[in-house]
Amino acid sequence: MPGMKPGPDSIGIVAISHGCPGVAARACGLVGLEPARVAEILKDRLSWYRDCRTVDVLNVMSTGNGGTIELLYMQLYAPTTLAPGRDFWLLRYTSLLEDGSLVVCERSLNNTQNGPAMPAVQHFVRADMMPSGYLIRPCEGGGSIIHIVDHIILEPWSVPEVLRPLYESSMLLAQRTTMAALRHLRQISQEVSQPSVSGWGRRPAALRALSQRLSKGFNEAVNGFTDDGWSLLESDGIDDVTLLVNSSPSKMMGANLGYNGGGFASVTSSVLCAKASMLLQNVPPAILLRFLREHRSEWADSSIDAYSAAAIKAGPCNLPGVRAGGFGGQVILPLAHTIEHEEFMEVIKLENMGYYRDDMTIPGDVFLLQLCSGVDENAVGTSAELIFAPIDASFSDDAPILPSGFRIIPLDSTSDAASPNRTLDLASALEVGTAGSKAGGENSSHSGSTKSVMTIAFQFAFEVHLQDNIATMARQYVRSIIASVQRVSLALSPSRFGSQNAFHLPPGTPEAQTLARWISSSYRFYLGVELLKSEGNEPILKSLWHHTDAVLCCSLKALPVFTFANQAGLDMLETTLVALQDITLEKIFDDNGKKTLCSEFPQIMQQGFMCIQGGICLSSMGRPVSYERAVAWKVLNEEETAHCICFMFINWSFV
């Protein structure tokens, strides 16, 4: 990058692209490691790339100039429960230049190049890597300057419309891949130059391995691949929470559930995972995650924490009832952090808790190993994670780790819509104790993402004969957490009427204004009262957009689909204006609602309106929504012919 001079106190400069196919980022940085060591680390993706599930080197060939050509197959985890993972079939070329520089080039192989083929793999979508890689130049006096280019096409067509920004965001690629590589190199460079023992007598490499186990275990739970031993449990009729169970020996060994720390024979033989994803509105991921970390008692159940701690200890344990329990004291013990404090690990000590064993509650403390990232609200467009697992107080290297937690990823950010030629110093927000960390990002928590997707996954070790009881408990617990998160999000959300969240008209402003006028006048015509209470010269559309009840319009087709919704309607359906048009009317009603709708729909067309008793409907994410009552009316255009049907759900809330 022209004019870029990375210094020893800077992670480097990261640029993101807006004008190319797919997503792309590039970076340049300086580290105190020799080029050969840098290349070795970067090629070992599993050691630093948290989203990478596996990299298989299927063939290696030497070249005449001392380089190598490798055929690679790589799999990436999906970041949410709502889309499949990605895989790549790659050619990698490593070469040593005359000036001592190392070049590592990678790109996808496809049928047009007459190269070897890799058949499609179940549960993965084949993605493309455009020419990418690393240029590693030696520095005088030691160290290396590294240039990184990441350019991939993630096939966003294969995911739901609401999630496509995740697969079209170069900023997310920069954060989770490009900057992660630089960060890892800097961390290892520091460990080499300043060897030390940190938290709880553990060396940095050992703590890094623990953080990898937490991250990988959480990703495995979110994805639930069948070749890892996961199988789907039958739904209870409401598809908001997905349950999977894993009884494979490899899962038991991976979690070290046979660990014997107290002289008892372990009888735990299976793991159950309850997972869900939800759409969040108008709450910055960093602020929400920081609240979840600092106020655990607002969403967690102490009896479940105690059960989880007992279940991974040697010896049988009994199932507690879910209750809204208070905590004993919560003590946060710092353990380790990356150089830029982007990610840190800590031990949470929950004091005066109880272990459930043999129908007895044994008083004691519960320890959670916790990994936290993305809590800096000044960092632009970053995802946030809070992953934790109960651990034995001995903190042994072979202690079992069964991670649970939260991941929040922004779906839209003003920064990703910046000038195509803009170079973002994303790394500046990661510096320690510098004024630059605040520059340019002071109001990012307000001007950045307005929508994000939260993925929740909780794992429970259990004995096989308790599976039905554990499944019921897990569903109930995750649903209670979802409700708590929703409540907290509303409390943390800035006012929609404040200056920092100025009203933005939906797409097609003139048409939307006309539709708002038709909706209002038709409601007055059929029900005899005003729908909107406009103040002063406030536009009708703005009043409708901010109406507290959910207002949704659907087409008059044989299979009605939604065409418009106000903000409350989008919140209720957990969708966006773009994705709204993929939702059919019948999809949001349960069986009773569908019967009522079919029998009463002719009344709407003849009488012009209908009042509907309170009931349950479903969001686009499958979450149940209760409403006190609903009103449906025919919307007439200026020729007084029916344009659409409008529904208003009054006093709705998530169950």
UniProtKB/TrEMBL annotation:
InterPro entries, sorted: HD-Zip_III (IPR044830), MEKHLA (IPR013978), START-like_dom_sf (IPR023393), START_lipid-bd_dom (IPR002913)
Annotated START domain residues: 24-197
Signal sequence annotation: none
Keywords: Differentiation, DNA-binding, Homeobox, Nucleus, Transcription, Transcription regulation
Domain of life: Eukaryota
A Pfam family annotated for this UniProt entry: MEKHLA
Annotated SUPFAM superfamilies: Bet v1-like
GO biological process entries: cell differentiation
PROSITE patterns: START
UniProt-recorded name of the protein: START domain-containing protein
Taxonomic lineage of the native organism: Eukaryota, Viridiplantae, Streptophyta, Embryophyta, Tracheophyta
